[in-house]
Specification:
The chain is mainly α. The chain has a domain of 51 residues. Helix content is 78%, strand content 0%. Helix 2 packs antiparallel against helix 3. It starts with a helix and ends with a helix. 7% of the residues are buried.
């Protein structure tokens, strides 16, 4: 009887295909890309804000605006870089979802 039960449970198991891990070069490239996108975006927006402050004579206004816009633009660019990675590993996070009532019946 236990052999039958073991056999039927073994047939019910579904093997999940795990996505391949990123290589060291891919991780290094992605982190470099994220770092440069943050640095360049922040430099351009804050530098542009400083330049506008000097040009208009309203010192902290455009610098603060450049900081806020630079942060928003940096977050957007980082999201654009990481989005394909999030899609690739989406199947791993499906394990964390609670089962629905239909699956329990």
């Amino acid at each position: 009887m236990s052999g039958y039960l073991h056999f039927s449970l073994k047939n019910l198991m579904i093997e999940e295909k795990k996505p391949e891990l990123m290589s060291t070069k891919e991780v290094a490239f992605m982190t470099t890309q994220i770092g440069f996108s943050i640095a360049i975006t922040a430099t351009l927006f804050v530098g542009g804000g400083r330049w506008l402050d000097n040009y208009t004579g309203k010192f902290p206004l455009f610098t603060l605006l450049g900081i806020v816009l630079g942060l928003a633009a940096s977050l957007y660019f980082v999201y654009q870089i990481v989005r394909p990675l999030m899609r690739k590993y989406k199947t791993d996070f499906s394990v964390l979802k609670k089962p629905t009532d239909q699956n329990q019946k």
